[in-house]
Amino acid sequence: MHTDNPGLLAPAEATLLMFATDMDPETRKLVHVTYGAQGNGKRRIISIGTDAAHTDAVVAADQPWAESPGLKGVTSPLMTIPVPGRDLVDGGSEHYLFWHDEGTKQLKYRTVRTVHGAPYTITPVTDDRAVSAHWEALKEVVWPVTSMPVPGRQGVDGRNESYLFHYDTEGRLWYSTLSIGHHADRADHADHTDALVTEARPVADWWQASLKGIGQLMEIHPVPGRQNAGGASEFYVFHQDGRPGTARKLMYRRIAVATDAEHADTLVTEDRPVADWWSTSLKGVA
């Protein structure tokens, strides 16, 4: 994490990171998954169907993430944000990959590209950079965990907006809203200017309908076929449920966020164990 206190320990003991490798709405959604405790990271490709049951399957089996060129050297991946205008370009998509450097205790990022076809290679586009020097919107962020596209705010006025969920040094969960400029013609990313739209707010106060009782937040991922559908977009929310005296268990719920200006959030499906409901694609992810 980026902090002036190099001895500050990471609040998360494990990671789960999911990002799309194929956003074609007429086909199954291919999703890149990285997971594991620090030093034991793996990656796989899964699919989530756009059918009503959202059928899941493993497309490419586990490999150590260190063997992927775009993940080499990454000690603790935290989250990704799509690069505006760089999805579905020349058979691949680009993401900003944020990670915690265990050696320097800094928050860093790089840009990576995932090929949409087998073997779904992840390659680096830019070298690692310090988040504090390149992201104005993340200046005060200590430990980011996931992002969510703001429904109805993608490609508006030349910008994409995202909710950014992050923890402070006391383990409290916050969210901010940030925007990133949309410049599809600039492969060097020089014009992808970021800005803070909404300053940090406590999740417990602002997401009471959908995220109440959430454990250690791990990942938020769009539900295929349920984006901008019926005036709302739906998301899977993955979190570790670790009540006092119990072992940590990976859970998920489904939520919806309205596409109008109010962006009202609702709970669609209550918590369920990932081991029971994602037994095909996320088996072994804890």
Task: Give the topology, please.
Blueprint: E1 14-22, E2 29-37, E3 42-48, E4 56-64, E5 76-82, E6 92-101, E7 106-115, E8 122-124, E9 129-130, H1 131-134, E10 143-156, E11 159-167, E12 173-181, E13 194-202, H2 203-206, H3 208-211, E14 216-222, E15 232-241, E16 249-258, E17 265-273, H4 274-277
Antiparallel strand pairs: 1-2, 2-3, 3-4, 5-6, 6-7, 7-8, 7-9, 10-11, 11-12, 12-13, 14-15, 15-16, 16-17
State the oligomer: single chain
**Biggest beta-sheet profile:** 5 strands, antiparallel
**Structural shape:** globular
How far apart, in Å, are the first and last alpha carbons? Answer: 22 Å
| Helix content bin | under 10%
Radius of gyration: 18 Å
Strands, count: 17
Structure description:
The chain has helices spanning about 130-135, 205, 210, 275, and strands spanning about 15-20, 30-35, 40-50, 55-65, 75-80, 90-100, 105-115, 120-125, 130, 145-155, 160-165, 175-180, 195-200, 215-220, 230-240, 250-260, 265-275. With about 290 residues, the chain is mainly β. The strands form four sheets. Strands 5, 6, 7, 8 and 9 form a five-stranded antiparallel sheet that branches. Strand 16 (about 250-260) and strand 17 form a beta hairpin. The chain is globular.
